[in-house]
Design a protein that fits this description.
Blueprint lengths: L9 E3 L2 E3 L3 E3 L16 H9 L5 E8 L16 H16 L4 E6 L17 E2 L9 E5 L5 E5 L4 E2 L5 H18 L3 E6 L4 H6 L14 H19 L4 E5 L13 H15 L3 E5 L11 H10 L3 E5 L4 H9 L5 E4 L1 H5 L3 H7 L26
Parallel strand pairs: 3-4, 3-14, 4-5, 5-10, 6-9, 10-11, 11-12, 12-13, 13-14
Antiparallel strand pairs: 1-2, 7-8
Helix pairs in contact: 1-2, 2-3, 3-5, 5-6, 6-7
Bound molecules: flavin mononucleotide.
């Protein structure tokens, strides 16, 4: 099968990608300690994958409060910014493009990760059931722990939260990232605001659809002021059930956001499909409606093969496709697609934490 659409260049925001094979954001929990600082090993991992049209680097906390798992990288200290610069330089040297995914986990956290062992924050004080945070216990043992009951953010705290996003976006640009991606998917803070099962606020950030979407749109607007809307991508996960999400109207919310984001001229919208993680499959009708609502660059992710990706791009439903587990295990994924070569199998045991094994040692062709 010809993969001509997948291998055609694509302008996106301020840059042009050499192909439409995107590396999905993948948490790998291998930041340098102490300080959650990206390392030369992280730089090597991303540089190995620089043939992607665009790498969306792993979810990266914008503040200590935004952290929900030990060993994930941050973008709120000078050392973290310097660490990321090494990563970005390594990718650019290989001719790649790279975005950083800006992350606040909200209630998917634990007091052991928070300053002064405080409760994590969320739209409302509602605990995420059957959800875990990864912490280092006081005796030094790494452990998955049930998430704590969060405290509701006060209305007066919202502007400081938005500032954390803006500062992180500015640091990302200083580190050399081509774009930033706002993580509003997978049950983390901004998704918690979108969904009525986690957002029961009575101020202007809760209640109606418009109110629940307000925080995300304010963050987009403030980051756009700082670095330009054409450097911002947004990731959403309509229908997602991970991290105790239950949002029956999430498709309607996504279509509303898509129209608002299109008006703002953002670089792209990235849809994390729900079915790989236990959710329903997105309907063809929804995909059609989303295409109409968002004429900008639309990326889908979740369970794609090269053939399926080529078909949805050729049909005009998507502009590009992101690959997660396949890129994790195949540093030269585009070349393998091009040659229709066999693919390495991802090893789940080494997804999170550790060193080179299962990280930089997957062979290229
Ligand atoms: C190990 C691992 C880490 C992930 N980390 C992130 C992340 O940091 N941010 C995010 O938005 N999604 C994350 N995801 C979801 C992926 O981006 C992607 O949506 C998912 O793997 C489905 O795509 P795939 O079938 O191509 O793997 C992660 C998935 C895996 C397997």
């Amino acid at each position: 099968m010809s993969l001509e659409h997948l291998f055609s260049p694509m302008p996106i925001g301020t840059i042009t990608l050499s192909n439409r094979i995107i590396m999905a954001p993948l948490t790998r929990s291998r930041a340098g300690q102490p300080g959650d600082v990206p390392t030369t090993l992280n730089a090597e991992y991303y540089a190995q994958r620089a043939s992607a049209g665009l790498i969306v680097a792993e979810a990266t906390q914008i503040s200590q409060q935004g952290q929900g798992y030990a060993w994930t990288p941050g973008i709120y200290t000078d050392d973290q910014e310097k660490g990321w610069k090494k990563v970005v330089d390594a990718v650019h040297t290989r001719g790649g493009k790279i975005a950083l995914q800006l992350w606040h986990v909200g209630r998917i956290s634990h007091h052991l990760l928070q300053a002064s062992a405080q409760a994590p924050v969320a739209p409302s004080a509602i605990r995420a059931e059957n959800s875990v945070s990864f912490v280092i216990l006081p005796d030094g043992t790494p452990s998955n722990q049930p998430c704590d009951t969060p405290r509701a953010l006060a209305s007066a705290e919202i502007s400081g939260l938005i500032d954390d996003y803006v500062r992180a976006a500015k640091r990302s640009l200083r580190a050399g990232f081509d774009l930033v991606e706002i993580h509003a998917a997978n049950g983390y803070l901004l998704d918690q605001f979108l969904s009525p099962n986690s957002n029961q606020r009575i101020d202007q950030y809760g209640g109606s659809q418009e109110n629940r979407a307000r925080l995300l749109l304010e963050i987009v607007d403030e980051i756009a002021q700082a670095i330009g809307a054409n450097r911002i991508g947004i990731r959403l996960s309509p229908g997602g059930v991970f991290n105790d999400m239950n949002h029956p109207q999430s498709e309607t919310m996504t279509l509303y956001l898509a129209k608002e984001l299109a008006q703002r001229g953002v670089a792209y919208l990235h849809i994390a499909e729900p079915d790989w993680a236990g959710g329903q499959t997105l309907s063809a009708e929804f995909r059609r409606d989303l295409r109409l609502a968002f004429p900008g660059r639309l990326i889908y992710c979740g369970g794609y093969t090269a053939e399926k990706a080529e078909a949805v791009i050729a049909a005009g439903i998507a502009d590009a496709i992101a690959f997660g587990r396949l890129f994790l295990a195949n540093p030269d994924l585009p070349e393998r697609f091009r040659r229709n070569a066999p693919l390495n199998t991802p090893d789940q045991d080494t997804f999170y934490g550790g060193g080179e094994k299962g990280y930089t040692d997957y062979p290229s062709l």
